[in-house]
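dumping this here so i dont lose it
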């Protein structure tokens, strides 16, 4: 009898039971659509990076679509090329100017990726930490994945460039760059998260 009274007291007191409804609920469809959104944004970002390089890189000698191939001149050993994975477009540059081509390419990609990453980071901060907008949170993760993919893409390009230019010091430079980028971001996010949840 005493056991029944204790059990009834626990059932009738909602403060004693953990409220499972307080957890953030994400719809399965929302998660799937966010995953698709992240893939579409990554593909769009990769295409934008290629097109920015194609349009703005002064080391590029010629651009062509594979359907309109001029095989004689541009297939020679004097010229090197790079092709987009999302189209048939190729950009040609002189093989002897490879270092110049890659340097401009990195500068162009950095001019796009760094502002996009910082903008996505700011939007994430405003939506997820400051405003706590649960309705936008699931979509925001697609943009966060996109921003980090672009940053990792840029870090990979920089790493390859450093390895090609300074083979012995490359690993130290890459690791140092990663530390410099990730440490302040992690500290900032944790600080804001702690401030918000301590209120």
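and the seq i came up w/
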């Amino acid at each position: 009898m005493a056991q029944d009274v204790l059990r009834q007291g626990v059932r009738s007191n909602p403060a004693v039971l953990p409220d499972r409804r307080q957890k953030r609920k994400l719809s399965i469809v929302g998660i799937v659509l966010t995953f698709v959104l992240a893939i579409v944004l990554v593909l769009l970002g990769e295409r934008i990076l290629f097109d920015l390089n194609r349009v703005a890189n002064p080391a590029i000698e010629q651009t062509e679509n594979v359907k309109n191939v001029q095989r004689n001149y541009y297939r020679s050993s004097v010229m090197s090329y790079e092709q987009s994975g999302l189209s048939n477009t190729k950009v040609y540059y002189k093989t002897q100017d490879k270092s110049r081509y890659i340097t401009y390419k990195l500068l162009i990609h950095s001019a796009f990726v760094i502002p996009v990453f910082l903008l996505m980071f700011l939007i994430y901060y405003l939506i997820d930490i400051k405003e706590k907008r649960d309705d936008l949170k699931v979509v925001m993760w697609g943009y966060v994945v996109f921003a980090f993919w672009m940053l990792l893409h840029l870090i990979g390009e920089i790493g390859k460039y450093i390895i090609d230019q300074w083979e012995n010091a490359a690993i130290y430079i890459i690791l140092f760059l990663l530390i410099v980028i990730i440490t302040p971001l992690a500290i900032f996010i944790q600080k804001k998260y702690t401030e918000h949840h301590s209120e």
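Residues 81 and 92 are 4 Å apart (CA to CA).
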